[in-house]
Design brief:
This protein is mainly α and 314 residues long. It has 16 helices and four strands. α10 packs antiparallel against α11. About 2% of the residues have low confidence.
Amino acid sequence: MNAYAPLLAALVALLAGLTIGKAWERYKLRDGKWFDRRRARESPHYILGLNFLVANQIDLAIEELTRAASVDPDALEVHMILGNLHREKGQVGKAINVHQSLLQRPRLNRLEHAYVLLCLGLDYKRGGFVDRALEAFRRRDCAEAARRFGAAIALDASAVPAYINLGDVRAAEGDERGAAEIWEKLVDVSPDRAYLAFDRLEALGRRTGHPERFTRLCRRLIDENLQDWRARLALSRHLAAAGQPRDALDLLFAALVQNPHALSIHQAIWRALGQLHHPAALVDRYGELTEHAVFYLDPHVCMRCRYRSTELLW
């Protein structure tokens, strides 16, 4: 008998653990009292509500499910169904309020959160709020994408594509300040790849009414690296668009000295000369700088095999 004592003790402990686990799954302590999590689903009102729903008697289904929800206000699925029924009745505002209140619950798991977002997106779509519907459908994807891009940066602080895409996610969420901080962080981390964020930062500066922020960024990069022709090119385009083609040309001529083969520089020079109606002195200066240059598309060159590509292959 003594030989079986440890086995019996283990079995008793296992059964006790299973009992406690099932009780913990079913019961919840709220305001000092224990509530049965299954009460709403076991309520006759819940069963009646589902029966009325199957019979397409929406008003009666709402009435019974509302009573079932009052039994346990935390019954997520009951409230989700109620919100959907309000939407089907055309009470879109009420449906949105129900589903938005569910999103405020602090302990939703990922699947529950996704389901509620789906319901909210359908509410907005039914109400004709197409933009809000798209936002609701995409919000979870954006959050997951941001988390993964952030994890990539944590693993490798020089992961340039992660900064670019994380900034894009922040901008898509309407967090333009956060997007600017991420793209400017990219400039600090990898100044030789800063040009990948130039268009984004310039457009952001225009939208927010602070174009001078982009100007300062380009000038800082030029001061830190006198061979940075890309920063000069970006700044020249910015100045030309602002009606300063002469200042843009000075930057372009300096960029041309650093990289006379970049077709993008020559195209920008031609546009700036056109804005100035082709003054002879500037055209002659351009001719002197390009006399021995060979034109071709600016390539990206592999440091190992010297393969050239017009696209950046990470």
